[in-house]
Amino acid sequence: MKILKVVGAVLIALVLGVAVAAPIGPMPGFFIGGEQAQPPETWPDTSAVHEVKLKVPGGLPRVVIIWIVEVTGDLYVVGDRSGGWVRKIGAASPVELRIGDSTFALNAVAVSEDPEAILGAWLDKYEPDYPEIVAGFRNDTAGADSAAVFRLDRG
């Protein structure tokens, strides 16, 4: 009987560990997965890539599922300034980006000059597939002020 309780406790711990460690839907996790790869000199077309995983550092690293946009050969992600992963990055931080099965070590650098152009491209990319969500962002007059834009530079 005691062995069954121990086995049951171990199984529950494993299930909870997997649920907390892996990103599930919009829920963050700790592990990004994928095969480590060198960032390409020129990023391939990402117009059809809607969601990627981004791992930010910290005492407890965090993996978020996020939208990405390419503008003039650079990749960008956008988040709410008050978001936990955004605060972990701050002005700049090493991150990992997973696109498909490839994971790239990069540096996220806050964009302070003309973030509106990046935000516009980001909204334009996602509006056809997510019109209700994007309309909410476009109608939010404080949106640009509350958004944090990060360029993902090669490490």
Walk me through the structure.
The structure is a single chain. With 155 residues, this protein is α+β, with helices and mostly antiparallel strands. It has 5 helices and 7 strands; from the N terminus they run H-E-E-E-E-H-E-E-H-H-H-E. It has helices spanning 2-21, 84-89, 115-126, 131-139, 143-146, and strands at 35-37, 51-56, 62-71, 74-80, 92-99, 102-110, 147-154. Strands 2-3-4-7-6-5 form a 6-stranded antiparallel β-barrel. The termini are far apart. The model is unreliable at 4-26 (pLDDT under 50).
Attribute tags:
single chain; alpha+beta; six-stranded antiparallel barrel; 5 helices; 7 strands; globular
Task: Provide a concise account of the structure shown.
33% of the residues lie in helices and 33% in strands.
